[in-house]
Amino acid sequence: MKIMDHIFKIMKCLLPEFFKRHLKKIILPHLNSRYQKKYGCPVCGSTVADFKLLYDGHLNGYAQYGYIYPLYYWETFNFVKYRCPQCDASDRDRLYALFLRKKFDALDKSKKYKFIDFAPAPALSKMISSFNFIEYRSADLMMEHVDDRVDITNMPIYSDNSFDLLLCSHVLEHVENDLRAMKELYRILKPGGWGIIMVPILITLEKSHEDPAIISEADRWKYYGQHDHVRMYSKGDFIERLSAAGFKVHLYDVNYFSEEVFEYNGILSGSVLYVVEK
Ligand SMILES: [Zn+2]
Question: Does the CA dihedral 115-121-122-126 come out positive or negative?
Fold first, then answer.
């Protein structure tokens, strides 16, 4: 606000009496609402004036290949307030951070908890590994700079029941045999352990859209919304598959977090968190 105060002082000296009287009433409230820090990011802890739109690459891809569904049919996808301007965390990362901070508060801090994060998002990964009772490991098939390079459908490097907590966000829509991947996630989680598993879900679909004929990058953009996605999930189908892998599935929505918390953190009110338990 210091800069605004200076501008106000300079304008006061320069402007005629009429504008001086109206400046405070009309112009300043507008400038304040434009620049006020009215949102918060639970990943990096910053307060921000606004979140940023989805990446150009994605928006261009939808337009270029004629993605067939409106973006607002996706569950948990605030493409307008998508990225934190400070740490780049997406709205779903912010949702996970809200939940994890809540759950971490309730953990017994004298113990250590083994946490595995698949396809880690940089800022969220930094947040999770900053807790000293968390023994953090990252894993992915393609990404560099992860602790383990693994194929999620076959992870012999991890023995049965080895992790207390897991996060697997926006991975399974890239995996042909997603049920096998879910069974592997179930196998490596300890009994009593829990985790967040999320995929893009289209709320209007009755059954997941997956078709072996859709293999070109252009077609995958058109029907699944990204060049390397192999399906578009329906909500019921996703829950059914997680259950078939052995998980108990819990859904946390705005009733759990509150309207105010969702609004403040730039999360749409229809967003849903999928938490699995073994
Ligand atoms: Zn942030």
Answer: negative
What's the CA-to-centroid distance between 23 and ligand 1, angstroms? 34
Q: How many Å apart are CA 181 and CA 183, to the nearest integer?
A: 5
Q: Buried b / exposed e across 151-185, counting CB within 10 Å, b at 16+? A: ebbebeebeeebbbbbbbbbbbbbbeebeebbbbb
Closest CA to 50 of 264, 202, 276: 264
Q: What is the pTM for the complete model shown?
A: 0.87
Q: Strand, coil or helix: what is 224?
A: helix
Does residue 191 sit in helix, strand or coil? strand
Question: What digits encode the pLDDT tens for the residues 16-43?
Answer: 565 556 656 666 556 555 567 799 999 9
Check whether 235 has a pLDDT greater than 90: yes
Q: Which tokens sit at 184?
A: 């592997």
Ligand 1 center to residue 84 CA distance, Å? 5
The angle subtended at Cα 139 by Cα 225 and Cα 46, nearest 5°, is: 70
With beta carbons less than 8 A apart as the criterion, state whether 124 and 97 touch: yes
Ligand 1 centroid from CA 248, angstroms = 31
Quote the tokens at residue 117: 């994060």
Which residues make up the environment of ion ligand 1, defined by Cβ < 5 Å? 41, 43-44, 84, 86-87, 89
Rounded distance between C-alpha atoms, residue 164 and residue 109, angstroms: 14
Helix pair 217-224, 56-65: axis angle to 10 deg: 100
